Amino acid sequence: MPVMIEVGTEPGTGVEPLAPSGAAVAGAGVETAAPGGTATAGSGVEPVGPGATAAAGPGAEPAAPLVRATRPRNRRELIIAAARELFSRDGYANAAMSDIAAAVGIGPSALYRHFGGKQELLHAVVSEALDSCLAGLYPAGPGELDVLVRDFAESALARRELGVLWQREARHLPAEQYAELTRRLHAARRTLAGQLTAARPELDPAHTELLSWGTLGVAASLAYQRVELTSPDLVARLMHRVATSVPPGLGEPRLDAPRGTLRHRSRREALLAAATELFAERGYASVSLEDTGAAVGIAGQSIYHHFASKHDLLATAVHRGVERLWVDLAEVLAPARDHADALRHLVWRYIRMALVSRHLVTVIATEAEHLQEADRLRTRQFQRDYIAEWLHLLHAVHPAMTPAEARVRVQTVLTVVNDVARTPRLATRPGIDRALYQLGCELLELEADPLPE
């Protein structure tokens, strides 16, 4: 799944807001302590209580141990389930093998009889989640779109952690394992594209690619939802909405377009831009200050004239991304004619930001877990407040929509945008911004016209 930004909670994913979860964010994106409320009967969504999250951060309560009086035959499966929860909730770097053993009710030595190390366990967790989530893509017959989205919504909901695991944690795997899992994901995406083509033979390859990734983005967004989904119905409706969309025309991807040659004159800004790109591409833990300095021709102690530490670089990048969201929001609200007009412009501005600043979206979605606690908590609150602004506008446009459904729809839009921004074959296509704008408006039940200038 391309990436996302988590919104308002540690996955992210995906956004975390802007998610970007990624994200992506895209990627972003990213969810939100939005206004509370109770879902109406049969809606399939129930709000999670304040502070709860589908993938809470490191400060969350530990998982209840699965104490066993005797060794169960499915101990390996229990270990994978416990690790899946802890990796998605606390992050791979913050979950120790002893924590996983305690969650299963066994000693560390028993855990190591099943898995030689934490990285081996991570591979098992991501592999199982990927296969289980994507299993719903295969039972439907050719062109059976209603069956496809129903089955895929069910399997995606059963492994809703996959978005966070793939977009944030899988980067900790060895390159060859990550590449093999990526091939499996792309094979599943091609299966989905084939189903879309069978159901809609008029689609050209560019639109099929966009809508298949967008449908996967709906599944990825589940990892960032701060609501309890009691049935797959809403998820299936959103997948169906994406799969049946008729976006405007798309050009050929510009994968070989040369990068601009202009760079920051300020050494501080050059360092920040380089660090943001490196953190997004390789992960915060794999990048050193020396790597960042080398990228802009600064060596040794000179880096410390601008940033006190690698954490200082990360915190500055994340803070700048969050503040940019608020500036965009203020510029949207000031000239808006009404709530619907403001929401359409907000969708458009977020799309433009994610496409232009995909590395920043990714960092917010995937690396905010590495912030020090005070910065992490402040960032989450900023993100929650930002998402609350989306929800306020959406409620004004659709007052009958439950707060829970509104949160699901907003997070889905952010995740789909972030994911596309992180997918070069899509993000570099001329017209992708207008296609995403139409998708975003449709997912929010908005009229897409007129397109903001």
Automatic annotation (TrEMBL):
A GO MF annotation of the entry reads:
DNA-binding transcription factor activity
Q: Which residues bind DNA?
A: 96-115, 288-307
Task: Please state every residue range assigned to the domain named HTH tetR-type.
Answer: 73-133, 265-325
Q: Tell me the domain of life.
A: Bacteria
**Keywords, A to Z?**
DNA-binding, Transcription, Transcription regulation
Question: Is Cell wall biogenesis/degradation there in the keyword field?
Answer: no
Q: Tell me yes or no: is DNA-binding among this UniProt entry's keywords.
A: yes
What this protein is called in its record is TetR family transcriptional regulator
Species of origin reads Streptomyces griseofuscus
